[in-house]
Amino acid sequence: MDRLALVCEDIAKYASRLKKVSLLADYFRGLSDEDLLLAVQFLSSGPVLEGPANHTLFAVEEKIKLSIGGSLLRDALQTATGWDPKILGICYSEVGDSGETTGLLLRGISAGEPLSLQEANAIYQQLFRTRLTARKRELLVGAFRRYRPLTIKYFVKIITRGLRIGLMEKMVEEAVAAACGTTPAAIRDANNRLGDLAFVALAARRGELESIEAQLFHPMEFMLAKPLERVEDLPSPPDWIVEDKYDGIRSQAHFDSGQVRIFSRGMEEVTNAFPEVVEAFTKVGGSGLIDGELLAYRDGRALNFNVLQQRIARKQVRATLIAEIPVVFVGYDVLYHNGELLLHRPFEERRRILEETFRPLPMPLLLSPQHTIATHDDLEELFLAARARGNEGLLLKRRGSIYEPGKRSGAWHKLKRPYGTLDVVITAAEQGNGRRATVFSDYTFAVRSGQGFVNIGKAYSGLTDTEIKQLTKLLRSASTDKFGRVMLVRPEIVLEVAFDGVQKSSRHKSGYALRFPRILRWRPDKRPEDCDDIAQVEALYKASLQ
Amino acid sequence: MEIQFREEGIFLPEIGLWLDNITGCAATWISHGHSDHARGCHGKAIGTSTTLRFYRMRLSVGDNEEEPEMIPLDFGQSMDWNGARLTPFPASHILGAAQLLVEWQGERLVYTGDVKLRQPLCGETTESIPCDRLIIESTFGLPIYKLLSRDEAIERIVRFARGCLEENTTPAFIGYGLGRGQEIVHVLCQAGIPTAVHGAIAKFIPVYQDHGYAFPGWEPYQAKSISGKALVVVPTHGSALEASGKNVRIAYVSGWAALDNARTRANAEELIPYSDHADFDELLSLVAQSGARHIDVVHGYTVPFATILQSQGYSAAAPQRTSARTNIEAEG
Hints:
The complex is a heterodimer. Chain A is α+β, with helices and mostly antiparallel strands.
């Protein structure tokens, strides 16, 4: 673990991707099998709860991630260092990273003993196994006092799942490939089958990659669609197959002889929220992995996302709720079928297998309807029809394309237009994290209400680094008060935000919240009195219930 | 003794003396030659000879203004001033930087100016001055800041430069115009590394030479011929170098380099956390060694540092509220 920390510090220095990968590959090469397993796991997925004793190489159990919150880490640091929480708060805010702050403050305090990867894993396992917060804190404090501060910096970063050294998962894959004498494509492929890069690395080193069989019941990354700005931007319309883009929850259903699990995007398991869908999949023959969308659905029509959301929150779903908010699963791709991974089969062939699997099935399993187009006008017409059906827009899939998990390769495009846009004014700003720790990059914004403004949302994406720097300067000069990382500002700066829906919410003073708000542009040409009014928001909300 | 903490500086009304007045006044003590301290057109300017030399280099006298009267006060000397006795002591910040002891009616007041405790790369080592009241800075007044010693800094600077040159790349050090810049050049030249120096830094080299610091083999920086040399440039020039695409690798030598987020801010590969300001532990030592019965904290993390001092049993205050961020931009 001490070596791992030093290697990470080195990786952080270089902007070059090649250099980062080669440093990491050199490190991997020198590790024993047991250490390679842990090092790859720590850098890719974080600590994992060890399975029972009969855990074998290819029978990987579900991975439970270690969840330890910021406040517990802070408590432990306070106990280990004796610093007042207020002083700690300022330190965290200046540094912008929990692990780094911990490492910095432990200098001169910890005993500086060496820590091996195996010993680090033993501490993580103890943290997994205890449910008592007090015991967790005790374990953390013990580690903080004992080991080298630089090692603890990364020990904590691995828990918080943010290394902030410019190392992406793909680079870890590349380093594993380089260290184990194989290609990144072979590693990625095996990882898609198994869903566990650490075991893939070990298999690669032993030359056993081929023997990794596809495993169900671990979430696989979803293939993503590139946004298409305008209908005319689509090259060669006849090459594309068109489906509706639904306003639901992108999900993948894994099933095998009566066993069913459903994962949503973000790799969350949502199986328990949708018993009627699970029930339907238990009746599907064979085994499979279907990519699709969960939708609230009534009378042949998808309902607004707001309606579906009420189902997600519940742990136990009662029959009355199922009747009140019926849900369907619209399948649009199949990635695995009866022991075979289908990612490299052309899209049309996967679709044929999906139809064979799905066609004879009753509700709530549906097949996503497909259309072909000859011209851009056809596309425009389909787009309007999809919107008329209450869907978000269209998805376009290139004929003959393979399924590329986690990629936005351009083989899929999405065509949608925002539900609406609003001109809003910034009322508060927060410092970002990591690269953005020294600028104010997260903005709370408001619309007009009477003589004043009421907050309606928060957004942090959509501006360039240069714009954020400029805004930071302006915001500092408009600051009226500061609480830790958050600064209240006079309502002066106007942004145009786009969003995908309006919901009722008690989080903001306006009583509404926006779905997926993103900043379209900074509007220095507008004054706060030019902002949109709360009445506009109310109207948009009412329209969404129609 | 009454002390007034004002925007334009610190004022001692009973003896009619300002400390680091920055807007122009009848009479001020100038602690050191950085532009955020040695500025404004004053009636009388008191400082060490070196500080006054820097002040004169920066001074622009307006049409309706008179040339200030320069009153040198060097280490080992004292002077009387309106019934008080003024004595300077080394502050180890930049060349010529001084703390000021003011003795008045049996009370001893020390104003540190910008200060550090450890031996600097160039300049005299700080002396600790027993006093009743201490006015101290806190640029790095949080426990996250622990900085390198002089020897560690020299080792890191030379190692980075040699490593880059061996790989046929060009090391570029970012240092401030006065102080850090000349110190880095001095270290590189002493190690026998050919060094090209940006004009904003080079213009102060003669002052350092006059104090006996050698700069064998330095040359003025020219964008056209940089290979095989170490470069020392001011922060504003760092991004120009990076954009030049000439295999330039940047090292950032600053107290702010103690945090990883300095890397993106300075576009630097190597972070060398060395400063002409005291780090947190040095500040605590300075306070402890002074024996002061009250401490005022005037720059940097004033409120948190005063709070920390209070929690350790000192009588301390942060009379001048400036935000930490404002001071980050003002270092050096």
